[in-house]
Specification:
By secondary structure, the chain is of the alpha/beta class. The chain is built from 61 helices and 41 strands. The strands form 11 sheets. A 7-stranded parallel β-sheet has the order 17-18-16-15-19-20-21, with helices on both faces. Strand 15, helix 13 and strand 16 form a beta-alpha-beta unit. The N and C termini lie far apart (about 100 Å).
Length: about 1500
């Protein structure tokens, strides 16, 4: 029996302590670990080298024994490495272990429990207790790396069988753990983990062992009691997965299976060693020995083992006799355990807590949800679908592998998330700006709280608080701010997917921060996987913070039950799938992930609203009161028993005419405008159109007019392509855009969609996107309805009034409070002012400005009158009114706190930087009459309300919508209304205050400067106020300086500083009554003029820098046009200088003096100030004047040159570049009128030769005649090609144009110094004259003009002449059948040079502009071949707005008269360009498509036809077919 024990030891793993090794184990180690040959290992065996001896050996000892040097070094090195490893393991075990954890739930296989490396199982190795509570046994099982698979499996199965037999005989449940350490090498219960490559092999080996070790009669019983191996994952300390696991086998000796049987096992042992020829060999005999194991404390003891006890079988027999009693005790324990029946009401508690008491997610008190989750297990993920329905604002995820294998990956497969690191929530700028960048309230923000993304390493529990705790606390503080998420209306859900058992666990820290930020646990819900996880969590929180969170925890429901319970709270409408149209009645499933990714769009599905809504009454009431229409209103009107939704007169025209007409066009993105007076149902009509067409188009509404338009374009095209990228034709997107401030922004969106279609190579033989632009019109005058623009005014037709009367009958039957449905009644009464006035007067009867709710209503009124669509957030109103909202339903409604005024307001959702709920005045007419009523009846004037709004700090505290309020207030103060007739100096609010309470507007502006301390525009506004209204130029300069300090690189701010000086100069001159001007005043005025000129030059430099920067900025499109105010300002100062000089005695008398001043200011070398002084007979009297003038020679000598340069620069800008949307900018028109006034004064001085001696000369010398002609041409602005082209659109008489042509002919024929520029201009004059008066006698023959052009092209060309020359060359030399000059073959070169010159000349000014198409190629010959834009417009006979719209949509080219006028050219696609065919076979000319989307989807070489337009940027292909 002794041999048996030795052999048994050899079969086991090497002891952790080397001193305990036998000589056979040393030999085994030398072979496998040191890697020496058998003969050297045998030397160690023969010399009786045991473990203790091995520790004492050195290299010399081994060589003395006959081990050669190489193997000796291997043995010593392997031993030293092993000793080092043992030391490190011991240190590591001491340093890293210690965190207790629970064992995996007994007899379970699909729980999510995982161990963490070096954590300590909080149960000890034990014997039987109550038979049901399992006993445990730990096996390190780690020294197996060099053990064969067979030996490893044998070790595993032997230990399992021994433990199983012991548990079965003792009738106790038990678990044996492999990969869990024990003393002395490890802490008792320390999780080590083992590397398992083939899990199935363990199960097969165990099954095989049961058959081999148990008696035949008990094999089946053993298989039922011994459960299959369970492989529990082992996480690294930083919560990342490792390859290790703990192998566990559960033993369940069920009384029904085991009955009163006893279980012996036969284990294979080695018996002695055979000798052959006197030598001991390794060959042993194998023998089966019988064993009977029972649990004895922490070990399994064999009652049949040899013993020195006198009666060896007595203990065995005694145990066997007790088995019937043992079996009975087991049975009783099982019955007692089964009596514990689950009885819980946690399902209903969960429903109540997660909705704030409403028991419906559709009507939940909570508007937002924040989830906190730790490491998940794959089997949990399918039960977490409820997270998708909650649409969390943020998920704080502590699993570093979540993106690869965890919750994040699972969630991302079904929804859109924005992944963030905690540091991104650090407040480095405005809070709402950060929220906007993070898209916090638009998509779920996934915050990786323990690394795992962007190469950020995870931290273990001890280090997390140091390395990551602060940043996560920052995230929580950010989310709990009142200006981010709605106060008391969001719920934090702790989703404990793994058991939290450590007091320093990051989730405990996170709970603490939320608890402190939220001021309690009312907004916290904890969902635990099981009761053990709950108990551990509860105990940790209670121990650390002294609070009992049992009432805020759900722990008796499985995650599957949690999932089902939460999802059952959804309405049928929210549960149902949504579908998009694919045309022809077909539909496609609209996946939730895709829908959420389109976060800037409210997509209208084919089956929108199906499933109904139990809140019909509330939704309808809100609409009839004056709230914005929703899709539900249209749905309800279609249900049985309802009258149809009121159909406006223009509805059928839009549906049957406008949209089908647009669909016949070939442009990718087309547009029509629905202009409406505010409050007249324009938005409702637009949405009604979408509702009606939802099965024919993919309909959507843009949520926020201030959204990033590039992102909007991306999402619109994504909606277009969704699930039918290959299908042609596609169903177009019908996108409604509402409340854009100006058409430029609409055009920006249209252009971006076009560009996106080009990038996606989307064919556009028909429109892919139709923009329904619903825009407020400030004019009440009815404009003509066309197929491009529909107008809705405040006057109902008889048919519309009849429908409103029918609807009122239905409403009065259903609603008792129909009398307060003012939104509906205002329209029903046809906007009758007396009705509105009566409602307002009656409602405001008890108004008292000292009451809080009255102050709020006054502020809302002011905002709604002067800032369309303005509102106040519900959070702000609650704070201001002192409400204390609670985190559950029925805790107060903010509208009710407005008292009698509540009928004038409604609640709306607002899409801004963050999404929030707000209140607004129900109707714009109500707001206007309220303001009048407050002023007249209650003596509460605009100035009082504005100052209240600006000075009440409570309105600007951290609440939702703070940034939106700041924006709206600033808008009211700053935004001016521009028109050609009148350039308003200030916003309507400031002008209204000035007219109502004259002088008090200053206090408003000063209060504004305190509220907006770092806003350069507000400081600029004060500067403008002081120099325009108060004439206080010192104050104006101070405020202009402050503005400049706040915005150094802004050209408009710099312009204000220059304007202050200019206005101060004008004011000083106006107040100076001395004639002639005194020398000292002359000095002051010229010094001011010099300063102003320098300031305007600075403005010009900044404007050019801004423009270039906009062009270079690839990340953000900025279409702000070039700021021309610096150029115009310098011209204006030049005119003032001329006026100043006219007041001096030197230049004030007679025409001769006029000519002298002209020459001085022209930098004439022979007419300098000293020369004028020398010839002045009164020079002694004028000495002081001359002395002062000499100080400003740089200004005076350059005056004409600078003025002329700026005139030409601006002419080039205005003539060759037009608005991107085709509409003339009123501010530019005003600037051009001022430019015209200044030029007239310039021309009066510099373009007239009035010297008496010159006029009396009857035989004027030719040179003087040329000079006179040039002056005449300059006076007519015909000395530049831009000025000549401008004659096409200016009201110039034909006689004057002929005179210009005549004068040019004279200059070209007679001037010895005739420049290249003048020859080019002469060509332009003839082309323009041919357009204005085709049969003019002053017109050169066409051939002669071409000859001149050819001559010019062969000469030396200055850089400044490149652009005009090559433009006119391309227009005139385009090959014709009957006329083909030699230069026509060089067209490709001319086009290339023109494009290069355009970018060189126009790069500073072209941003936000489109090159004007001056000419089109017509069907006729000669001059008549060029058709100018005016002829096209005359064919249309429509207003400017309609022409602009027809141009954008391409409808203008479908007009019959236009088609007859223009020549259609063929060509083929070449990338993004077209190679146009010509009548010369080898000459093909590159042309750019006006809309690149018209080339999308067309293969290289595809044949096209199109019209040709000529712009300074190059020839354009228009109306591509």
């Amino acid at each position: 029996m002794a041999d048996t024990g030795d052999m048994k030891n050899e079969e086991e793993d090497l002891s952790a302590d080397i001193k305990d090794w036998s000589k056979h184990q040393v030999r085994q180690w030398a072979l496998k670990e040191a890697g020496v040959d058998d003969k050297f290992a045998d030397i160690l065996l023969q010399q009786d080298i045991k473990g203790s001896s091995l520790l004492l050996l050195d290299k010399t000892d081994l060589t003395d024994l006959g081990v050669t040097l190489g193997p000796a070094k291997l043995i010593i090195h392997a031993r030293d490495d092993l000793l080092k490893l043992k030391k490190e393991q011991a240190t590591s075990s001491i340093n890293e272990s210690g965190r207790p954890c629970k064992p995996y739930p007994f007899h379970r296989y699909h729980d999510t429990c995982r161990y963490t490396e070096n954590s300590i199982l909080d149960v000890t190795e034990s014997g039987a207790s109550d038979y049901i509570e399992p006993c445990h046994e730990y096996k390190a099982f780690i020294n197996t790396s060099n053990t064969s698979e067979e030996d490893k499996m044998k070790k595993f199965t032997t230990e399992v069988i021994r433990f199983a037999a012991a548990c079965m005989n003792s009738r106790t449940n038990g678990t044996i753990h492999f990969g869990v350490g024990d003393k002395p090498d490890f802490i008792h219960g320390q999780v080590l983990g083992v590397d398992v490559k083939d899990k199935e092999a363990y199960e097969n080996a165990l099954n095989y062992a049961i058959n081999g070790y148990f008696e035949h009669k008990h094999k089946n019983t053993a298989k039922m009691c011994i459960k299959p191996p369970r492989f529990v994952g082992v996480l690294n300390k930083d919560m990342t997965s490792s390859v290790k696991c703990v192998i566990e086998v559960d033993i369940v000796p069920d009384s029904m299976i085991c009955k009163e049987n006893i279980y012996h096992i036969s284990l294979e042992t080695k018996k002695g060693k055979k000798k052959a020829k006197g030598k001991e060999t390794e060959k042993t005999e194998k023998k089966q020995s019988k064993h009977f194991y029972v649990r004895d404390g922490s070990t399994s003891r064999d009652l049949l083992a040899p013993t020195t006890y006198a009666k060896p079988m007595e203990e065995y027999n005694k145990f066997v006799d007790s088995l019937p009693q043992l079996s009975q005790l087991r049975k009783q324990a099982e019955e007692k355990y089964l009596k514990v029946i689950k009885s819980s009401h946690q399902g209903s508690r969960l429903s109540e807590m997660i909705t704030g008491g409403s028991n419906s997610l559709d009507k939940s008190h909570f508007e937002r949800y924040v989830i906190v989750a730790n490491k998940s297990h794959s089997i949990q993920l399918e039960s977490l679908a409820f997270l998708l329905e909650l649409n969390p604002t943020a998920i704080l995820d502590f699993d570093p592998e979540s993106a690869k294998t965890g919750l994040q990956r699972h969630f991302e497969e079904q929804s859109t998330v924005n992944v963030h690191l905690p540091v991104q929530y650090k407040i480095t700028e405005g809070v709402e700006d950060i929220a906007s960048k993070l898209k916090l309230t638009r998509n779920t923000s996934w915050v990786s709280c323990n690394g795992g993304i962007n190469d950020e390493a995870p931290s273990d529990i001890e280090d997390w608080c140091i390395h990551k705790g602060a940043s996560v606390r920052g995230v929580i503080s950010f989310l709990c701010r009142k200006d981010v998420l709605p106060n008391k209306r969001f719920l934090v859900i702790f989703l404990l997917l793994s058991t939290v058992s450590e007091k320093m666990d990051p989730l405990v820290e996170t709970f603490s921060t939320f608890w402190l930020e939220l001021g309690g646990t009312e907004q916290i819900l904890c969902i635990c996987e099981n009761e053990k996880a709950f108990t551990s969590w509860k105990d940790l929180i209670e121990a650390r913070y002294g609070i009992n969170i049992s009432g805020r925890c759900i722990y008796e429901l499985s995650f599957a039950e949690v999932n089902g319970t939460i999802r059952s709270l959804l309405s049928e409408n929210r549960k149902s799938s949504r579908f998009l149209s694919c045309g022809g009645g077909s539909k496609v499933l609209f996946e939730k992930k895709v829908e959420r990714s389109l976060n800037t769009l409210d997509v209208l599905c084919v089956n929108q609203c199906e499933g109904g809504n139990e809140d019909k009454i509330a939704i309808e009431e809100n609409f009839y009161k004056g709230g914005k229409v929703s899709w539900w209103n249209f749905y309800f009107s279609e249900q049985p028993g309802s009258t149809p939704f009121i159909k406006r007169d223009k509805f059928d025209f839009i549906v049957d005419t406008v949209i089908p007409d647009l669909c016949s066009l070939t442009k990718a993105c087309v547009l029509f405008n629905l202009m409406h007076v505010p409050g007249c149902g324009g938005t409702t009509l637009a949405m009604h159109t979408l509702w009606f067409l939802r099965d024919r188009y993919r309909c959507a509404v843009l949520k926020d007019s201030n959204a990033d338009l590039a992102e909007v374009a991306d999402q619109v095209v994504k909606l277009l392509l969704y699930d039918h990228e290959e299908q042609l034709p596609r169903v177009p997107v019908l996108l409604m855009i509402d409340d854009f401030e100006d058409m430029d922004k609409v055009f920006d969106l249209q252009q971006l969609i076009e560009k996106k279609c080009v990038r996606k190579d989307i064919q556009s033989r028909s429109p892919q996107v139709i923009l329904l632009n619903c825009m407020r019109s400030e004019s009440l005058e009815q404009t003509e309805t066309t197929t491009e623009t529909v107008f809705i005014g405040n006057n109902l037709s008889e048919l519309e009034q009849k429908q409103f009367e029918q609807k009122l009958v239905e409403i009065e039957k259903t609603y008792k409070n129909a009398g307060t449905f003012y939104g509906f009644m205002i329209m029903k009464k046809n906007f009758l002012p007396e009705y509105i006035q009566g409602v307002v007067r009656n409602t405001l009867k008890s108004f008292n400005i000292n009451q809080k709710h009255a102050q709020l209503i006054a502020v809302l009124v002011l905002l709604n009158v002067y800032c369309k669509g303005a509102s106040l957030s519900v959070s702000l109103c609650e704070e201001f009114l002192g409400l204390q909202p609670k985190p559950f339903c029925g805790s107060g409604n903010v509208e009710d706190r407005f008292g009698k005024f509540s009928t004038l307001i409604s609640t709306i959702p607002v899409e801004a930087k963050v999404v929030f709920k707000a209140v607004k005045i129900i109707h714009s007419s109500i707001a206007w009459h309220c303001l009048q009523e407050l002023t007249t009846t209650h003596n509460v004037k605009r100035v009082e309300i504005t100052n209240l709004l600006l000075t009440t700090d409570k309105l600007y505290e951290s609440t939702q919508g703070k940034d939106k309020l700041m924006h709206d207030v600033r808008y009211m103060l700053v935004k001016r209304h521009h028109s050609v007739e009148e350039e308003s100096q200030f916003s309507p609010l400031i002008q209204g205050i000035a007219s109502e309470s004259q002088g008090l507007e200053e206090t408003v502006l000063l209060n504004a400067s305190k509220r907006f301390q770092k806003d350069a525009i507000i400081s600029q506004l004060l500067a403008r106020y002081y120099y325009l209204k108060k004439k206080d130029f010192k104050e104006a300069k101070d405020w202009a300086g402050r503005a400049k300090d706040l915005s150094r690189e802004n050209s408009h701010i710099a312009d204000t500083s220059a304007q202050v000086i200019k206005h101060e100069l004008k004011n000083a001159i106006a107040n100076d009554k001395d004639v002639p001007i005194k020398p000292e005043k002359l000095n002051i005025f010229l010094k001011m003029a010099q300063t102003a000129i320098h300031a305007f030059k600075e403005t010009q430099d900044l404007a050019k820098k801004e423009s270039v920067h906009r062009l270079q900025n690839k990340t953000r499109q900025d279409n702000c046009p070039f700021n021309t105010s610096g150029c115009l300002g310098e011209i204006q100062v030049g005119v003032i200088v001329i006026e100043i000089l006219k007041k001096t005695p030197i230049f004030s008398s007679g025409n001769v003096r006029h000519d002298i001043m002209s020459r001085v200011l022209s930098s004439d070398a022979n007419s300098g100030i000293q020369e004028v002084e020398r010839h002045d007979p009164m020079r002694n009297k004028h000495t002081r004047y001359y002395s002062i003038l000499r100080q400003f020679e740089d200004v005076l000598y350059n005056l004409k040159f600078r003025m002329k340069s700026n005139f030409d620069y601006l002419d080039n800008f205005y003539v060759n570049l037009g608005s991107r949307c085709g509409m003339k900018d009123s501010r530019e028109q005003v600037a051009q009128m001022e430019l015209f006034r200044c030029f007239k004064q310039y021309a009066d001085l510099f373009c007239k030769t009035d010297s008496a001696d010159l006029l009396k000369n009857k035989t004027m010398h030719t040179m003087l005649q040329v000079h006179h002609a040039r002056q005449f041409l300059e006076m007519q602005k015909a000395d530049t090609y831009s000025g000549i082209l401008n004659c096409l659109s200016s009201p110039l008489s034909t006689e004057m144009m002929e005179k210009i042509a005549k004068q040019y002919k004279f200059v070209v024929d007679n001037a010895d110094d005739c420049s290249m520029k003048e020859r080019i201009n002469f060509i332009y004059v003839n082309v323009v004259l041919s357009c204005i008066k085709p049969g003019s006698r002053q017109l050169q023959s066409y051939q002669k003009l071409l000859d001149l052009l050819s001559q010019v092209l062969r000469g030396q060309i200055l850089l400044s002449d490149n652009l005009p020359l090559h433009f006119i060359a391309v227009a005139l030399l385009w090959p014709q059948l009957h006329l083909q000059p030699a230069e026509s073959t060089s067209m490709g070169k001319y086009v290339s040079q023109m494009r290069t010159s355009y970018h060189a000349v126009m790069k500073e000014v072209c941003n936000g502009k489109r090159p004007v198409v001056h000419f089109f190629m017509g069907k006729k010959r000669g001059y008549e071949r060029l058709v100018h834009l005016g002829e096209i417009e005359r064919c249309i006979k429509a207003g400017q707005e309609q022409i602009a719209s027809m141009w954008e949509n391409g409808k203008i080219w479908k007009e019959k008269e236009v088609e007859e006028l223009l020549c259609r050219v063929t060509g083929e696609v070449q990338g993004n360009l077209i190679l146009a065919d010509t009548c010369i076979p080898d000459v093909k000319i590159e042309v750019t498509p006006m809309f690149r989307s018209q080339l999308s989807g067309r293969a290289k070489g595809s044949k096209l036809s199109f019209f040709i337009g000529f712009s300074m940027k190059g020839p354009l292909a228009i109306d591509i077919n």
